[in-house]
Amino acid sequence: MAIVDVKTEITGNIWKIEAQVGQKLEEGDVILILESMKMEIPVSATESGELVELLAAEGETVTEGTVVARIRA
Predict the structure, then answer these.
(1) Which of 14, 26, 42, 46 could form a disulfide with 30 if both were Cys (CB 3.0 to 4.6 A apart)?
(2) Which residue range forms the structural domain that includes residue 42?
(3) How far apart are CA 56 and CA 50, in angstroms?
């Protein structure tokens, strides 16, 4: 099993966290939603597995390439 980092693709604010640590995710499942320039941008699981760590909180500002979650694939 490998740990996979999930990174943001854009700078923005974390508007809403959709997944919880321990949750089983399929590739493409939404983990959280960023808000940038009044648009909502989903950050999705890049692989199927278990969400083992969330590294961000609602309201936090993140930049492009920030690791926001880790999945055990």
Answers:
(1) 42
(2) 3-72
(3) 17
Task: Round to whole Å and give the CA distance between 58 and 53.
Answer: 15
Residue-wise pLDDT tens digits, 2-60: 999 999 999 999 999 999 999 999 999 999 999 999 999 999 999 999 999 999 999 99
pLDDT for position 1: 78
N- to C-terminal Cα distance for the chain?
A: 6
Number of structural domains, the chain? 1
10: β partners: none
How many Cβ atoms sit within 10 Å of the Cβ of residue 65? 11
Contact, 59 vs 45, CB < 8 A?
A: no
Can you read off the two tokens belonging to residue 50?
A: 């278990």
Residue 35's CATH number: 2.40.50.100
In the numeric block, the tokens 């979650």 are attached to 69
